[in-house]
Design brief:
The structure is a homodimer of 296-residue chains. Chain A is mainly alpha-helical and 296 residues long. Helices cover 71% and strands 1% of the residues of chain A. Chain A is built from 15 helices and 2 strands. In chain A, a hairpin with a 2-residue loop joins strand 1 (94-95) and strand 2.
Chain lengths: 296, 296
C-alpha cells in the first residue's frame, strides 16, 4: 500500500469531520471558539484519529463508524498539548511551527480552550450514540476507553510524573511509566475505540489494544530520539528541548542504542499482535513500521 | 418538609458516592489524586448533585438512579472552581475557607487536577451506562446534557465573557448571559439529567429544565448580593471581591432592588414550572425558595 497517499487521504477526511464538529462561531464568547480552532487546525498529523479509523477497518467496520471517536481523540490530544505547553508546565512557545495557544490568547483563554476541547470531544461522542450514528453500547464503551486513557490513570498521570521527574535522576521504569501514560495510553485508546465502534469481537479488540500499547511506546521513544537527532525545520519546533529542560527521556536513561532497540522491539510486538488479522490490518502494520522511519 | 435535615441527609449520601468514585490512590501519580480529592472534599454544599437526585425523584425515579450524574456534576463543578480560581483567571486564594488548589499544589497540578475531575466525571457516567447501572440511552442523554452545559456554549462561555467583562461597562443582557452560562447552565443540567435518569417523560424533562434555568439565574443573583451583604465567616471567603475586581454583577448593572426583584421572579417562575407535579416536586420547590433566604 502507498502509506503516504493513505495518510494524506485520511487526514483530509478527518479534517472535514473536525471542521463539521467545531465550526466557526459568532457571539459573545467567540474568542473561545477562535482559540479552540486555532489549536485544532494547526496542521497536526492526525495520528490518533487515523489509528482510530484504521482500528475500525481492521475488524471489518467502516472508517465512518469510528469517526465520532476519531474526532474526540483529536480534540482531547489537542487539549492536552495546549495545557502541557503552558508556562508552569512544559513552557513551550512553539508548536507545529506556530506560536502556542497561551502566547496568542493568554493563559486564561488557553486553559479554557483546552477545557472546551476536552468537554466537546467527549460530548460529541455521547451525542453520536444518542442520535444512533453509532450503536449506544459501543458509544459508551468507546467513551469509557477514551476517558480512562485521557484521565487520572492515563495521560494526566503521565504528565504529572513527567513534570515531577524534570531534573531528577530517574530510571527506565519511570520513563516507561511516563511514556505509557502520557502518550501511549491515548494512542492505545485510539485503535481500541476504533475497533469497538467497528464492531470488533472481544479477542479482536484485545489484540488491537495490545498493538496500540506497543506502538504507543515505540512512538514516544522515537519522539525522544527525534528531539535529539531530528531536523527542527521538518518538525516545526526546536530540537534539544528535552535535554535543556532536563526531561526524563528514553535515550537519557537507557542510551540511544538501547532506546532504538526497544522501539524496534515494540513495533515488532505490535505487528505480531496483528497476526490474527489478514490484509485488513495492513494499514496498522504499515503505520507501526513508519514510526521507525518517520522524520517528524 | 424539614429542608435542613433533607439537605444534610442528601449531602451525606452524595459524599459517600463521591468517596467511592474517587478513593485515595497510591502510586507514582498520587499527588494528582491528592489534589483532586483536596478540592472535591472541601466542604462543598453539593447543591448540583442534590438538585440532580431531586430531579430524579420528581419524575418518580429513585435518587440512586441519578447518582452517576450527580457525581459527574460535582466533579465538573469542582474542576470549574479550581480553574476559575487560578491567578490569571479570577485569582482567588481562598475557597470555602481553605487555600485554593494552586496555592497548595501549584498552578500545574491545579490545572491537571481540574482536567482529571472533568475527565473522571464524564467517564464514570459513561461507565455506569456501560455496566447497566443506568440504562445506556439515558446515560448518553445525561452525558449530552451535562457536556453541553459544561462546554463551550455553556459554563466555559460564561467564564470567558465574565473575564472579558472585568472592568468594562456592561449591561443587564451581558450579565444575564454570564450568569445563565457560567453557573445557570450546569444548575439546569443538574435537575435535567436527574429527570432523564429518573425516567421522566419529555414534557416532564422540559418542565424541570425550565425550573433549572430559572433557579440557576436566581442562585447567581443571590450570590452576587451575598458577595456584597453576606457574612464572610459563614461563607468561608472574603466578601466584596466582585467589586474589588470590577466584576460584572447583577446588582452592579441593575441595582440591588431590581436584582432582588429578578431573583424573586425567577424563583416564582421556577416553582410555577413545577405545577405539573404533585408533592413529589416539594424538594425542588423548597430548594428554590431557600435560594432567597440562604446566607452562604
Amino acid at each position: 500500500m502507498d502509506l503516504k497517499a493513505y495518510l494524506a487521504q485520511r487526514r483530509e477526511m478527518i479534517d472535514r469531520a473536525l471542521e463539521e464538529a467545531l465550526p466557526e462561531e459568532h457571539g459573545l464568547a467567540q474568542m473561545l471558539d477562535r482559540a479552540m480552532r486555532y489549536s485544532l487546525f494547526a496542521g497536526g498529523k492526525r495520528l490518533r484519529p487515523i489509528l482510530c479509523l484504521a482500528g475500525a477497518e481492521t475488524v471489518g467496520g467502516s472508517p465512518e463508524a469510528a469517526m465520532p471517536a476519531a474526532v474526540a481523540l483529536e480534540m482531547i490530544h489537542t487539549y492536552s498539548l495546549i495545557h502541557d505547553d503552558l508556562p508552569f508546565m512544559d513552557d513551550d512557545d512553539l508548536r507545529r511551527g506556530r506560536a502556542t495557544s497561551h502566547k496568542v490568547f493568554g493563559e486564561a483563554l488557553a486553559i479554557l480552550a483546552g477545557d472546551g476541547l476536552l468537554t466537546e470531544g467527549l460530548g460529541q461522542l455521547a451525542r453520536a450514540g444518542l442520535k444512533g450514528l453509532v450503536p449506544p453500547d459501543r458509544a459508551l464503551a468507546a467513551l469509557d476507553v477514551i476517558a480512562r486513557a485521557a484521565g487520572k490513570k492515563g495521560m494526566i498521570a503521565g504528565q504529572v510524573v513527567d513534570m515531577e521527574s524534570e531534573g531528577r535522576e530517574v530510571d527506565e521504569t519511570v520513563v516507561r511509566f511516563i511514556h505509557n501514560h502520557k502518550s501511549g495510553a491515548l494512542i492505545a485508546a485510539s485503535v481500541t475505540s476504533g475497533a469497538i465502534l467497528g464492531g470488533g469481537g472481544e479477542s479482536q479488540i484485545e489484540a488491537i489494544n495490545y498493538y496500540g500499547r506497543s506502538i504507543g511506546l515505540a512512538f514516544q521513544i522515537t519522539d525522544d530520539i527525534l528531539d535529539i537527532e531530528g531536523d527542527p525545520e521538518l518538525m516545526g519546533k526546536e530540537t534539544g528541548g528535552d535535554e535543556d529542560r532536563c526531561k526524563a527521556t528514553y535515550p537519557g536513561v537507557a542510551g540511544r542504542d538501547r532506546s532504538w532497540e526497544v522501539a524496534q522491539e515494540m513495533v515488532a510486538e505490535g505487528r505480531a499482535a496483528l497476526s490474527v488479522f489478514g490484509r485488513e490490518a495492513d494499514s496498522l502494520r504499515e503505520i507501526a513500521s513508519y514510526f521507525l522511519t518517520r522524520r517528524k
